[in-house]
Amino acid sequence: MLAAIHAKRKLQLLIGLGLGIVFGFLLQKGGVTNYDVIIGQLLLSDFTVVRIMLSAVLVGTLGVHLLTAMGWARLHPKPGSIGMSVLGGLIFGVGFGLLGYCPGTVAGAVGQGCLDALFGGVVGILLGAWVFAALYPRLEPILTKVDFGELTLPELLKVNRWAVVAAVAVLLVILLVLIDKARL
Amino acid sequence: MDWLRMEQWHPYVVGAGIGLLSWVSFVISDKPLGCSTAFARTGGMIEKLFRGSKVAEKPYYQRFAPVIDWEWMLVVGVIIGAFISARLSGQFEWSWIPSRWQATVGGSRFVRWVVALIGGTIMGFGARWAGGCTSGHGISGTLQLAVSSWLAAASFFVGGIITAMLIFKVLMT
Prior knowledge:
- The structure holds two protein chains of two kinds.
- By secondary structure, chain A is an all-alpha fold.
- Chain A has helices at residues 2-7, 9-30, 35-42, 48-69, 82-99, 103-111, 115-143, 153-157, 161-181, and strands at 80-81, 147-149.
- In chain A, helix 2 (9-30) packs across helix 6.
- Chain A starts with a helix and ends with a helix.
- In chain A, 50% of the residues are buried.
- The mean pLDDT of chain A is 96.
- By secondary structure, chain B is mostly helical.
- In chain B, helix 3 (36-51) packs across helix 5 and helix 8 (136-143) packs antiparallel against helix 9.
- The mean pLDDT of chain B is 95.
- Classes of the chains: A mainly alpha, B mainly alpha.
- Chains A and B meet through helix 1, helix 2, helix 3, helix 4 and strand 1 of A and helix 2, helix 3, helix 4, helix 5 and helix 6 of B.
C-alpha cells in the first residue's frame, strides 16, 4: 500500500508541500529562522540550534530505525567521501558563518519577511549551486578522494545496528543534559 | 489555540516535532527531509529559460534533473509554514538587517546584502559539494547513521564557528 502512495507523483508533490509547511512552522517557532539565533550558535553563546538538532536526531534515530525494522520505512544514507563530506562541509560552513542561515532556515527567514535572506541568501545559494553544477565534471577527482559510498556507522564499526542506535541515543541525551546544566 | 500564537516553543518541542516529521516523511514519501537539492534544480530551471533543453545534458543535471519535485515543494512549504507561524505570533515584518548584525557591523543594507550574497553563494556551492545541508545531512543523514552525514555535519559547524568567530571576535573588534 505504501509503495502505491510513493508512486503517485502529484500526491507526493502535495505531501511534500504539506510536510514543508509543518517543517517551516516548527523552524519559525524554534527561533532558528532568525539570523541572531544561528549566529549565536556559531559564536557558542546560544545553543538553540544544537538543542533542536540533537533532539530531532534523537527522536528521528529511534523512530526511523524502528520503522525500518518493522518494514514500514527504508533507509537512504547519502554517499560520501573525505573529499566530498569534509571539504564540502567546511566550504558550506564558511558560507553558513557569512550568511547566518542554512538552505532550510533561509526559506523560513524569507517567510517571516527577511529580505537579506531572500535577495542575498536565496539568490546566492542558487548561484552557488549553479556554479557547482557547471564545475562538477572537473571537480570529480576531488569529490571521489577516499570514497566510502553509502557507508553507515554500524557497517563502519562492524557492530549490530541497534548497538549504535542505543549508543547514539545515550550520547545525545548526555550532550543535551550537559548543555542544560551549563545553561547554554 | 494560544500555543499556535506563541512567539517561541521550547527547543525540545520543536526538535521532537522535526524528529516525528522525519518518521512521517520516511513512511509516506520514502524520502528524508532535505532542502539544498531544490536549489540546484532551480538553478538548472533558470538556466533552461536562457539556454533551452541543452541544459539537461549537463552531467550534474542528469543526476538532479532541473524539474519541480517533492523536495522543491518542501522548500516552498517551509516559506509558507514560517509565514503562517510568524503571522500568528505577530512576528512577521519586512526587514533587511538582523539586529545582531546591525549592532556589530552596522546599518548599511548594501554591506549586509553583499555579505549575505557571497555567503549564500559559498554555502550553495558547499552544499552541493558535500551532497546535502543542515537538514539533509545534519538531521536526516545523521539519524540514518550515515558516515557521510556525521562528517559533513561536523564540518558545517567547524567551518561556521571559525567564520563567525573571525567576523565577530576578530574583524569587528
